[in-house]
Amino acid sequence: MNRLKIASLGLLIFPLFLCDFAGGGRILAQDPENEQASGLEQNETLRDTLKRMQIRREESDFKKLVEKAAMIREGADLLASEVEAKGLISRDHDKRLREMEKFARQIRSGSGSSSDEQLAAGPTSLSEAVRRLAESSQRLQTSLEKTSRRIISVAVIDASSEVIELIRLIRLSLN
After folding, report:
1. 136-152 exposure pattern, b = at least 16 Cβ within 10 A, e = fewer
2. pTM recorded for the entire structure
3. What is the C-alpha to C-alpha distance for residues 41 and 76, in angstroms, rounded to an integer?
4. CB-based contacts of 1-4 (< 8 A; 24+ apart in sequence)
């Protein structure tokens, strides 16, 4: 047991002896200027990496907004074709309308706005509201595809606000 303690103590002291022998009794330190230079390089590399990650995330978020605009347009076109064929909307479309409204709100907030605006001239009938919804959703998708992720587009904000208001009016007519 004592031999084991002595051997483990020797293992702990041996590296200290080597450091003392190699350094002539003093601890060798790195050059502070080299440490600062390597620290700055690491900071710049980290900043560059973070910036690239931020750009990728913004591009991904913008791509999702474009996809949501396409979903709104598809839903509006499907709704318009059904109203043309049957002349009315079933309550089953309420879930789709809520989803379309949610996507339009996300697009609008992603574009830099959050206020609800009333339509200047509201639709007079359900078929007109659905037709205007299809037109607005098409305009929203086209405007969003044309803009860059860094640009705040008034056209996108206006189109998304109009889509939200038209969906709200259509949902009220279902009740």
Report:
1. bbbbbbebbeebeeeee
2. 0.68
3. 53
4. none
Question: Which residue in 172, 171, 159, 131 sits closest to 68, CA to CA?
Answer: 159
Contacts of 55 (CB under 8 A, 6+ apart): none
| Distance in angstroms (rounded) separating the CA atoms of residues 157 and 65 | 13
Q: With the C-alpha atoms ordered 91, 169, 87, 158, is the resulting torsion angle positive or negative?
A: negative
Residue 112: phi, psi to the nearest 5?
A: 105, 15
User: Which pLDDT does position 120 carry in this prediction?
Assistant: 67
Which amino acid is present at 102? K
pLDDT category of residue 17 using cuts at 50, 70 and 90: very low
| Residues 6+ positions from 76 with CB-CB distance below 8 Å | 100, 130, 133, 134, 136, 137, 138, 163
Alpha-carbon distances of 98 from 43, 104, 126, 163, rounded to whole Å: 46, 10, 17, 12
Contact 104, 139 (CB under 8 A): no
Across all residues in the chain, what is the average pLDDT?
78
Angle at 106 between CA 154 and CA 119, to 5 degrees: 50
**Strand ranges inside 75-162, DSSP E:** none
The token pair that represents 171 in the structure block: 């949902």
